[in-house]
Specification:
Order of helices and strands: HEEHEEHHHHHH
Distance between the termini: 36 Å
Strand content: 5-15%
Shape: globular
Largest sheet: 2 strands, parallel
Length: about 170
C-alpha cells in the first residue's frame, strides 16, 4: 500500500544519507565483520574503505535481495559495482544470492590486508590495528575524501554527492 511504499522510500533515503556520509568522511574507514552481513548490513560494510572479517566456517556476506518483493535502490547496485570489481562475484552476490565467507571475500578483493592475520582474531581487533597504522600516516583529510569520491564516480552520482572536482 501507499504507507508501506512511503516508509520504504524514507528508509532507503535515510540509509542513502548514511552511505553518503561514509563516502564523504575525511579519513579512511574500516568495517569489522564478526558475524553475518546481509542486505543493508552488506551495503554498510561495502560503504567503508576497508573490510576485515573473522575467518570462520560460516558464511558472512550475502545480498539476500532476490527474496524481497521489490528491487533494491540504484545506489545499492552502484555501490556493488564500485566495490566488487569482479563481474562473476557481482553475479554471485546479486543474481545467485551466494553466501560469501572470508576466504571468498579475500579472493574477490574485498579484504585488502593479509587476511591470515584475522584467522584467529576478532575482526574488531584487526580493524583497530589497521586503523592505528592508517592514523600514523597523517594524510590530508580533505584530499583523502576527494580522492575516494573520484575513485567511485558512478556511486557518487547515485548518491547525488558532489565534491570540489565533482564526482
Amino acid at each position: 500500500g501507499g504507507s508501506e511504499d512511503k516508509a520504504y522510500k524514507e528508509m532507503n533515503d535515510g540509509f542513502k544519507d548514511v552511505v553518503k556520509d561514509l563516502i564523504s568522511l575525511p579519513m579512511p574507514t574500516i568495517a569489522a565483520i564478526n558475524g553475518y552481513a546481509t542486505e543493508a548490513g552488506l551495503m554498510l560494510a561495502l560503504s567503508h574503505d576497508h573490510l576485515t572479517m573473522k575467518q570462520v566456517v560460516e558464511p558472512h556476506l550475502r545480498a539476500e535481495l532476490l527474496s524481497r518483493k521489490r528491487s533494491y535502490p540504484g545506489y545499492f547496485a552502484a555501490l556493488i559495482r564500485s566495490k566488487v570489481g569482479c563481474p562473476l562475484a557481482r553475479r554471485k552476490l546479486l543474481l545467485r544470492d551466494v553466501q560469501i565467507d572470508a576466504e571468498e571475500a579475500a579472493k574477490i578483493g574485498l579484504l585488502d590486508w593479509n587476511h591470515e592475520v584475522a584467522s584467529e582474531k576478532d575482526a574488531l581487533e584487526v580493524a583497530k590495528t589497521q586503523a592505528d597504522e592508517l592514523a600514523k600516516k597523517e594524510w590530508n583529510g580533505e584530499l583523502y575524501a576527494e580522492m575516494r569520491q573520484l575513485l567511485y564516480p558512478e556511486l557518487c552520482k547515485e548518491l547525488e554527492l558532489t565534491s570540489s572536482h565533482s564526482c
